[in-house]
Amino acid sequence: MMQLFRSLADSGKTVVCITHNLFHVDDNAHRVVVLTAGGRLAFFGSPSEAKSYFQASKLSDIYTILPSKSADEWARLFKSSDAYRRYVASRMPHIFKADRVR
Hints:
Layout lengths: L1 H9 L14 H4 L3 E4 L5 E5 L1 H8 L7 H4 L5 H9 L2 H6 L15
Antiparallel strand pairs: 1-2
């Protein structure tokens, strides 16, 4: 199934797959999203960046690492990370500019 998703993505389609089975994610996913309890964003980036960020040898290890901090802590840590700046903040529209604020 992951190979099918990869071929769809390679053909220019956007594919979103929600899974707890991470066996083929490393080889087939371009980006991963890690959510904490309550759906807080703990990470967004490539599979290799996720392993580095969580200091995990494999993606499935992240499941055992997440309970070490609260959802709020993970969200706060991610918001101050390079991955957040690269993949989230840099893509957000800058709605409020200094010259528009009164």
